[in-house]
Amino acid sequence: MNNKNIMSLKNLLSVALFLFVLNVSAQKYTNVEAVNTSKSFEGESFSSTKTFTQNVNSSDSFSVLSEILENEQLRNVIESEEMVTIFAPLDTSFSKLSDDENEAFMLDTDLQSQFLKMHTVPGRMDLASLKKAIEQNNGRAQLKTLAGTKLTAIANKRGEVFINDQYGNKAQILETNFYHKNGFFHIIDGVAAPTKKE
């Protein structure tokens, strides 16, 4: 083989490698499959073809989240991300707030923005991945949120998984592995972020 043929072969291999890497990296950000994955919770079906907001809006169990996500800027906090896992608090998670605390929280968009970011981690993490991370890290997995804070995930002997924030808030993961257009969400009972200013 002469030098010209070797150079042509190298160029061809370089182009092929570039296209392969481009294809693999694109899969990280978009779901190229046209498959609709759905799962039900309390009679409502959540779907991978819907945004997170569209999914929670279809359920009466997330009226607080739905009200927060009516604000377009707050919606964009999570929907502008390429791939995220969201820990979605049920309405019952807010029951410990007094009426005054609840009203103050619902009027404070900065606090709501932080709240959303602190319940959201980059990437897709299903329950199996979360449990594996807990197991590989001596029973405590650290998850960095979009707010730059950390959630600590732990599991008890019964296999129940909990997330804690750095302020002492704790939530149990009740139902898992729901898809939305940009990743996964898990349903939690409790909040893993402050709901009032210190």
TrEMBL record:
Keyword annotations of the record: Signal
Record Gene3D superfamilies = FAS1 domain
Q: Which residues form the signal peptide?
A: 1-26
* Superkingdom, taxonomy of origin: Bacteria
- Single GO MF descriptor: cell adhesion molecule binding
Which SUPFAM superfamilies does the protein's record reference?
Answer: FAS1 domain
Q: Where is the FAS1 domain?
A: 49-192
List the GO terms this entry assigns under cellular component, sorted alphabetically.
extracellular matrix; extracellular space
A biological process term (GO) from this entry: extracellular matrix organization
Protein name (record): FAS1 domain-containing protein
